[in-house]
Specification:
By secondary structure, the chain is mainly alpha-helical. 75% of the residues lie in helices and 0% in strands. Helix 1 packs antiparallel against helix 9 and helix 2 packs antiparallel against helix 8. The protein is globular. The two termini are 13 Å apart.
Length: 301
């Protein structure tokens, strides 16, 4: 695996993730959050399971892995996505983006004791520098210190912790099952656990009144984001330490802003330019001298 190919695939995944909020914004014109979430993930797991069937994948995890899979599914969807939907009722999208900007910091802190990653000052400095750049980039997006937002921020932060743990614990599962199997099993279990939360909204929702564009936006999040970008995220865990991979999350606010400039005619501010340079510098510091090493894996991606 060449570094150019690996980083190109990771960058593509981050571009998909960065565009996802734009498509979610379009989808939420006609869908309520819970119905959107359930519909999105049901479509995703159907596609992933069809892909496994076409490939002829018949690997059945050991009994000891099923609880592990269920736990990861719970972290990824009910905790991460469910708390995001709930928390956004009490805070702003800008605050939510800032909370998710802390993911690499949390992944690194968890990876040191759980994955035995070595603590490196240069990596921590790079992560902190990149996070500071994200704060600057997002300073134009409703980032304020208001008591009324604290509840929502805390709820979303718990969801961010769940995503960080999902990334850390998911690394070993990928080594056992491969990325496609790991993401399919965890998303299937997570969706099953999430359905009771939004079942009433979904069953009483009038899908006939949804326009074409919201449907296309929903399909983007289901097929491209959940069906392609999520498996690519797990696939990359075979080659990079969890903390090094998570650093690329810092690129999402930059890519999202650029996409908003291209498609929504939003202005690029000085804060974006300054923060973007700082983010790129932080990512470079955290990633330099990185050695790509494939984790032993006897299954296909």
């Amino acid at each position: 695996m060449s570094s150019v190919r690996l980083y190109s695939i990771i960058l593509f995944g981050q571009l998909v993730f960065a565009a996802t909020p734009l498509f979610l914004k379009i989808a939420l014109r006609d869908f309520d959050p819970l119905t959107l979430g359930i519909t999105r993930f049901v479509i995703s797991i159907i596609i992933l399971n069809i892909f496994l069937f076409i490939q002829g994948r018949k690997i059945i995890p050991d009994k000891k892995h099923w609880l592990w899979i269920a736990g990861l599914g719970f972290l990824a969807i009910p905790c991460n996505q469910g708390l995001l939907f709930y928390g956004l009722q009490f805070t702003t999208p800008g605050h939510a983006a800032l909370m998710y900007g802390m993911t690499p910091v949390l992944v690194y802190l968890f990876a040191i004791p759980l994955l035995k990653e070595k603590f490196r000052i240069s990596k921590m400095l790079g992560i902190i520098l990149a996070f500071a750049g994200v704060v600057i980039v997002l300073s134009d997006r409703q980032i304020t210190i208001e008591p009324e937002f604290v509840k929502g921020d805390l709820i979303i932060f718990v969801g961010v912790i769940a995503w960080a743990l999902y990334t850390v614990f998911g690394k070993s599962l990928v080594a056992k099952l491969g990325s496609i199997l790991a993401i399919t099993y965890t998303m299937t279990y997570g969706t099953i656990l999430f359905i009771p939360i939004g079942a009433y909204n979904t069953l009483t929702f009038d899908f006939g009144h949804v326009d074409f564009l919201p449907w296309m936006a929903l399909l983007y999040t289901a097929v491209i984001t959940s069906g392609i970008a999520y498996p690519l995220w797990f696939w990359a865990l075979k080659y990079l330490e969890a903390s090094k991979l998570s650093v690329f999350i810092f690129l999402q606010p930059l890519l999202a802003t650029i996409l908003s400039y291209i498609f929504l005619s939003e202005q690029l501010t000085r804060n974006f330019v300054a923060g973007g340079i700082i983010v790129l510098g932080g990512v470079f510091i955290a990633e330099r001298n990185n050695r790509i090493k494939l984790i032993p894996d006897h299954s296909r991606p």
